[in-house]
Design a protein that fits this description.
CATH architecture of the largest domain: 2-Layer Sandwich
Largest sheet: 15 strands, mixed
Helix content: 40-55%
Strand content: 15-25%
CATH superfamily of the largest domain: Endonuclease Chain A
Low-confidence stretches: 206-211
Number of strands: 17
Amino acid sequence: MSLSLIACVALLLHLCGIVTAMHAVMKVRTPQGAVAWALGLVVMPYLTLLPYLFLGASRFRGYARLRQMNQQRRRYVARQWPGRADYLQRHLPPAEELQRFQSINAMLQQPFYHGHQLCLLVDGEATFEAIFEAIAQAEHVILIQFFIIHDDQLGQRLQRALLERAAAGVQICVLYDGVGSHALPRRYVDTLRQGGVRIHAFATRRWRNRLQLNFRNHRKIVLVDGWRAFVGGLNVGDEYMGRKPPLAPWRDTHMELQGPAVADVHASFLRDWRWVTGELPPFLPPRDGCGTATTLVAATGPADRQETCSLLFVTLINAATRRIWLTSPYFVPDLSVFSALRLAVLRGVDVRILIPSRPDHLVVFLASSLHAAEAHKAGIKMFRLKPGFVHQKVALIDHDTSMIGSMNLDNRSFRLNFEISALNIDVDFAQQVEAMLEHDFAQSVAVTSEEYQGASFPRRLAMNIARLMGPIL
């Protein structure tokens, strides 16, 4: 290739980079993300043009269609559940008990409900023992949604369990994410379909979004007969059972929910299934609440009008008066969440965050390490779990509030992924979560300033470069 041709190609790439940078400035949701993309596209278009095609979009397309589908879903649920309004009205707690979380209700347009029975599932063994027990007892409907399903020992066990219930006449719908489950072989899906299971990959379906690695469905949901719901951080794969070094043992948490808010978990699945298939899955109303917990199901995503996941964390942190303990595999907070954490420290709140001591994604780990060092300087108590890898997504606020679900402390969860968590107000359940986290902290080491200052110059440089990529990770 002649030098003149190389020069022409380089010029063309830079012109494309400039034009694409203009698109990033106009379309990327946050200023930090816009700056990161624009700078990279102008300076290094050879390296950033192709990634922008897959990672650049931060606004989900199809809002009008999604709203129309939500209206259809509501009419469908109303037909299937004639006593819905009276049932839910009976389970509304007194408004004065929830004033600290009023903004969450307004933002999500989702109320808290009272009367839930909760079960904390502290690891993979407890989680899948409970899930497979519920599947085996299913009589009518099983709805399942995971970001990752592997065709390994655990995945094959799930396949066998679903085929057995399908043969018994149970209606089964399964959603898996097309990117998260990219390694799932076609034969796995075909075997389930041949056995009567309705199974589909989540995709945004629009031509441009088909190229996107953003807008992934990161939710983990199991619903059985309309009254038992499981949400949390675990996917279907042997690594989540701690069977795959070097990240073993795997530290993760799930929970089971029974009560009126199960209907909101159901509604989240209905929306996603309707989006992917154009159809509505079976719906069964929840049973009467048989517990004492007050729960709100927060289903967030890039189709929301606001950045609901980020604002949810900000509200929880600002509501804390005594403590806010958080666990996440990734700690790449945006400015609003990081500011809320620092302000909580200044209020005298015990702020602790548990992150991994080993990486599953190197760039995110490096960015998390620099944020952890800066958090330590601000008085936030940062800890690294020593054995294995921590993947759990748990929050503990004061003496009575906890949240368990799929939400990480990073931009992908805050703005780009579809997520779901259960926010629970119950002293007894919060005490169980506290005991679990205290055990985790006892197996951790504190992050100190030496972790960054004592690192080599190349590693510190890598951390800072990775941090610049935080808005687009």
